């Protein structure tokens, strides 16, 4: 079910890491909103800032990470300005996370039910018996026999462990679940099973979900909305169907062509080169050095965001030529023309 007021609204968010006094601008001017009950996919290559954005939403940035500007509003409160005690209460109870590796999320020397019972009782006044009942219910929800709840993590297969982590994320019925590459370590069949279960749970229980992945095909299958990140910025966002049918940013066009079925190209075309080093001073559009369509302006000036009639947002000086770019981008030779691509 979708309402009109956003559940979470992020505005003008800048986050940097400081290493030996040198600043890496990991997030620059991030703006996005998540409606209640919405599934939003956040895609981009490794190092583009996806994890930094999630950690900022969860309030778990490492000590050298700093929010320099912006707000994250949830239920009328700015999470960035909230004191740490209140912030801790929102974690798991209002926003929870399913991490890349279930092995990292679960304590290997503790039975799984105890871990979930402890997580529940840290936030809610509940007897051990009531919490244990809740664990059985949660196991049923994620499709694992509740009788297995007393196992240790190593007694579970990879898929079962990831289901246990999903059970933990659901334990306190949060309004937002962030899933960070939740199935990367699993084979394709188990991946499909986990995603169909997650979608079902999301529809039944109505929580909103941010799915973070480098795999745009997963977003197409699972999310109504998509945000494409590049080098710390959201360069395109909107309804998944609109963006797949009519991408307006050359980077999004490239990501789609890297998956042949989506890009309807005979063989996947990789985008040559790699994202910029964020510790360097970057001028102009951050994708310009790899973009086959970049002009002199692109190398000099960061584009202003444009919002199209369908609500699609794009950050490209030349978005109006995107149909032409899409045609040219289906040829691998086009990508070889980008001036400073390194591979
Ligand atoms: N603790 C840190 N200290 C300094 N720089 C960091 C730190 N964590 C991340 N970075 C840098 O911030 C940028 C964004 O990294 P981030 O991990 O958010 O990207 P990502 O898109 O999640 O990548 P991946 O898909 O590989 O997890 C990268 O340039 C990375 O090197």
UniProtKB/TrEMBL annotation:
Bilayer topology reads: Peripheral membrane protein
Respond yes or no to whether keyword Endoplasmic reticulum is given for this record. no
A family per Pfam? oligo_HPY
InterPro entries assigned? AAA+_ATPase, ABC_Ni/Peptide_Import, ABC_transporter-like_ATP-bd, ABC_transporter-like_CS, Oligopep_ABC_C, P-loop_NTPase
Location, primary (coarse class): membrane
Homology family: Belongs to the ABC transporter superfamily.
The protein in question is named ATP-binding cassette domain-containing protein
């Amino acid at each position: 079910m979708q309402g009109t007021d956003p559940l979470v609204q992020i505005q003008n968010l800048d986050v940097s890491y400081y290493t030996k006094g040198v600043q890496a601008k990991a997030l620059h001017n991030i703006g996005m909103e998540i409606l209640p009950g919405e599934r939003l996919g956040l895609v981009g290559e490794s190092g583009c800032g996806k994890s930094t954005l999630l950690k900022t939403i969860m309030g778990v940035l490492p000590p050298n990470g700093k929010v320099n500007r912006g707000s994250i509003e949830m239920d009328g409160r700015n999470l960035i300005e909230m004191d740490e005690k209140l912030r801790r209460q929102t974690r798991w109870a209002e926003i929870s996370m399913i991490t890349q590796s279930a092995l990292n999320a679960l304590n290997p020397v503790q039975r799984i039910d105890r871990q979930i019972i402890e997580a529940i009782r840290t936030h809610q006044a509940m007897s051990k018996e009531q919490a244990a009942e809740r664990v059985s219910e949660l196991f049923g929800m994620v499709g694992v026999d509740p009788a297995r709840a007393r196992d240790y993590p190593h007694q579970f297969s990879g898929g079962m462990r990831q289901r246990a982590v999903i059970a933990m994320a659901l334990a306190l019925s949060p309004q937002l679940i962030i899933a960070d590459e939740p199935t990367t370590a699993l084979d394709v069949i188990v991946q499909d099973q986990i995603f169909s279960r997650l979608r079902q749970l999301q529809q039944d229980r109505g929580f909103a979900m941010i799915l973070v992945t480098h795999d745009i095909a997963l977003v197409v299958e699972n999310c109504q909305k998509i945000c494409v990140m590049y080098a710390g910025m959201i360069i395109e966002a909107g309804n998944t169907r609109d963006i797949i049918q009519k991408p307006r940013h050359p980077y999004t066009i490239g990501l789609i062509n890297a998956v042949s079925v989506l890009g309807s190209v005979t063989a996947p075309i990789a985008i040559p080169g790699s994202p910029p080093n964020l510790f360097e001073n970057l001028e102009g559009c951050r994708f310009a050095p790899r973009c086959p369509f970049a002009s002199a302006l692109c190398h000099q000036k960061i584009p202003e965001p444009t919002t199209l009639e369908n609500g699609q947002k794009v950050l490209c000086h030349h978005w109006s030529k995107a149909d032409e770019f899409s045609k040219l981008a289906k040829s691998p030779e086009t990508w070889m023309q980008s001036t400073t691509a390194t591979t």
